[in-house]
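Support reply, case 0932

Customer input (verbatim):
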Amino acid sequence: MAESAPGYLATVAAAYDGVAEVYSELFADVLDRQPLERALLSAFADIVRPLPGPVADLGCGPGHVTAYLHGLRLDVFGVDLSPEMVALARNSHPGLRFEVGTMTALNLPDRTLSGALCRYSLIHTPPADLLDALAEVHRLLAPGGHLLLGFLATDEPDAEVHTYDHRVTGAYRWPPGQLTELATQAGLVEVAQLVRTPTDGERGRQAQLLARRPLGT
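Our regenerated output:
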């Protein structure tokens, strides 16, 4: 069962600390098996590359996607709640920057980032706290900056948010429209959304939301 704030941050950090090595090995080549995910990341990179400021991989885990974005010629750094994950990322990718931090309170100036990637990293955030997390991303994005958010989608478009028995710790599935509405409330504008059927042992629909901070805000 997913946990309510404020205790969920410590719970999630401890859970991922405990599986960091296994997680790193399991997902090291995940993008090799997911051409559609690679295409989305490539499109995201093309959009944010001309913009000023770095890209933050928020919830970077062991850093494999951070490194992939670096290979796409982005100035990118990773942030993760789990110290063990950050240690693995630093060891595996010594030329890149990784920090321990939470997506709800990042120690970065306003309007700093050209882009933010939250690849399944908000799935453990309780519904009551998700708007605050998205508002924090909005604060960090420069006008015109983009967020690419991956999340677990409900099987029915009009279903309610519900808990999901994630292998590491409790998580949430979202109706794509509801999550888009939260992003809008946080000040972001939807650019595109993709919902796909599960592959490679995934246990439900997967979704991606591309949103931007409007110019002039």
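We compared this against your earlier run and they match. Two observations from our side: The first strand starts at residue 55 and ends at 58. Helices lie at 8-27, 35-48, 64-71, 83-92, 127-140, 176-185. Please reopen the case if you see a mismatch on your end.
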